[in-house]
Amino acid sequence: MAERLVQHKHCPVCGKAMSVEKETCSDECATTRQVQLKEKKRTLYLFYFSIVILAVVLGLQFMTAF
Q: Of all helices (H) and strands (E), which one includes residue 18?
């Protein structure tokens, strides 16, 4: 009969197996993860800002067309 594996999950940074209670496998991966999340948040804010600017420009063009 096959042996069951211990409950685990994988580190989102490096992919190593780790305990279920932890977010990352090491302090180094935790730091890397924080940097990744910060960059992702910054990119998302820039995307939203670009959408707002695009909407304003299109709105102004629409208003001046009539």
A: strand 17-18
Strand partners, 18: 9
The predicted pLDDT at position 61 comes to: 93
C-alpha span between 41 and 14 (Å, rounded): 20
For the cut 60, the answer to whether the pLDDT of residue 16 exceeds it is yes
Tell me the pTM. Answer: 0.70
Report how far residue 62's alpha carbon sits from residue 11's, in angstroms, rounded to the nearest whole number.
49
**pLDDT grade for 2, boundaries at 50, 70 and 90:** low
CA 24 to chain centre: 15
**What token pair was written down for 22?**
């932890």
Domain locations along the chain: 9-65
Q: Quick check: 12 and 28 in contact, CB under 8 A?
A: no
